[in-house]
Design brief:
The structure is a single chain. This protein is an all-alpha fold and 137 residues long. α1 packs antiparallel against α3, α3 packs antiparallel against α4 and α4 packs antiparallel against α5. The chain starts with a helix and ends with a helix.
Length: 137
């Protein structure tokens, strides 16, 4: 694979991961506010634990793959330093049942996790861009 194509795939993967993580964070932040509205407009499946688990699985797979791939290019741990606590918060929010008793606390933990994962992707994009610019210059 050429260096240009590899760079394009990295950028696309980080943008996909950042977008997915941002949507996850928005979902988690708005969930307490929309609990009463969603069933009436027919999108109650967004409230299910299965949907939340799929968000976390998606964020984990895309995040780990793209940030590790980026690390191999730029050799900076900053993106991993954002990604790992973000994923830990997401998995804690999904797997720790007592947290589900408080909708607000659960939403805060999940929003924090999704935001950290999105920031990790943005940091990875920036670091990859800087590494590419240094190689070209």
């Amino acid at each position: 694979m050429s260096v240009v194509m590899e760079h394009r795939y990295r950028v696309l993967l980080d943008r996909l991961g950042a977008t997915g993580s941002f949507l996850c964070a928005v979902h988690c932040a708005l969930l307490p506010l929309l609990i009463a509205i969603l069933p009436s407009i027919g999108v109650a499946t967004w409230l299910s634990e299965d949907a939340e688990e799929w968000f976390v699985i998606f964020a984990s797979l895309v995040g780990l793959f793209s940030v590790v791939w980026g690390y191999r290019r730029h050799r900076e741990v900053r993106a991993l330093g954002l990604l790992l606590p973000g994923l830990a918060a997401l998995w804690f929010g999904v797997l720790y049942p007592p947290l589900h008793a408080s909708a607000v606390l659960h939403a805060l933990v999940m929003t924090l996790g999704g935001t950290l994962v999105a920031l990790a992707h943005l940091a990875n994009l920036r670091l990859t861009h800087l590494a590419s610019a240094a190689d070209a210059g």
